[in-house]
Amino acid sequence: MSEERRAAVPVAAPGASPDAPHPGGLERSGPTGGSRAPRPLLLAAALCLLVLLCLLSIAVGSRQIPLDQVLGALTGPHDTQVGRIVWDVRVPRTLLGVLAGSALGLAGAVMQALTRNPLADPGLLGVSAGAAFALMLAVGVMGMTSLYGYVWFAFAGALAASVVVYAVGGLGRGGQTPVKLALAGIAVTFMLESVTRGVSLVDPQVLNRYRYWASGSLAGQETTTILQVTPFLAGGAVLAVSLAPALNNLALGDDVAAALGRRLRRVRMLGALSVMLLTGAAVAVAGPIVFIGLVVPHAVRAFSGPDQRWLLPLTALLAPCLLLAADIAGRVVARPQEIDVGIVAAFLGAPFFIALIRRRRLAEL
Questions:
Q1: Rounded distance, CA 264 to CA 250, Å?
Q2: What pLDDT, on a 0 to 100 scale, did the predictor assign at position 11?
Q3: Distance CA 236, CA 239 (A)
Q4: Where along the chain is composition biased (Low complexity) (predicted)?
């Protein structure tokens, strides 16, 4: 924390519970003194918005189908042409958008809390690129076709890329800073993409898969594949949410968190594990999609405050809203063709990233 914010945080009372929000920071109103919206109401509104966007994702596509036919396909037989489009294409695509969006949003929120870095995002810090690179090696070089075979490579690639980025970002004077980590992540991402492109040129089949991984897409996955990756995403999500009280303590600084009984190494290892599971599994089925984990936690923090016990569930609900909205836009604006959701998400998130870079107080959250 900056000196101004550290001085503004009262010292925790002796014997305070480590799970309790720290005084004066997590439960207070916004910086202007106005009251925030009730958090249960925010959760209910986020859930309603997610349900609405799921229905829109099923009803709207690159092919125009009357709404009554879509509703009839949802409630009627599946063997009609409209029924096959709805159940074999749009429903799996929507389900994947919900799972991948929640995973990327939670991963970004946990990374920001662990590092107190407002620019932390799986796509920006090279985690997604590492997972995609390892997947290309597993599928293209080793010939793996089963998700249970190559998803472990995604986890290993995500972890290795994270280690490299944080090592490079800590070099030089001043150690790690948000901008240095972001630059290191961008450099590692470009390096991995270049190597992956070189490997893909050797085999046309690998090239086709690389095009999918490079852009990020919710199309083309079967329901069985999505169900196979769901346990990894669920495990990472449960682990991330369970770390919320510890992440609240970390916001006070390492010394205070340790005084409150937190084992910092254990918290960071579990946080890294959750990010690895969430990012690796999401990239395995949707490809590297950037900015979802950057934009949504910041937007949620503005409405709910920094308490991770509320921020993480809200992010898990609102991140897929952004991803589904981007996917719907990509299907509509280029009819009868489609724009991959990764491209639309980058188009929406890039201005937000530039605005964060230009902020004066960017040292830490």
A1: 8
A2: 41
A3: 5
A4: 8-19
Distances (CA, A) of 277 to 103, 235, 312, 328: 9, 8, 16, 26
Radius of gyration of the chain (CA): 21
* Tokens coding 167: 């090592």
Nearest by Cα to 353 from 155, 174, 120: 120
**Tokens 């919900």, residue located:** 98
Selected residue with higher pLDDT from 150 and 278: 278
Query: What pLDDT, in 10s, does the model give residues 146-194?
Result: 888 889 999 999 999 988 988 888 787 766 677 788 888 888 988 988 8
Which residue, chain included where needed, has tokens 């960071």? 268
Tokens standing for residue 103: 């995973």
Q: How confident is the model at residue 327 (pLDDT cuts 50, 70, 90)?
A: very high
Q: Which residues are within 8 A (CB) of 331 and not within 5 positions of it... i.e. 6 or more apart?
A: 60, 61, 62, 338, 339
More confident residue, 65 or 235: 235
Q: Is 196 helix (H, G, I), strand (E, B) or coil?
A: helix
* Helix residue spans in 21-137 (DSSP H): 39-59, 67-75, 81-85, 91-115, 127-136
Query: 146 vs 29, which has greater pLDDT?
Result: 146
Residue 53 in tokens: 């966007």
Which domains are assigned to the chain? 38-43+93-357 (1.10.3470.10)
Res. 9: pLDDT tops 50: no
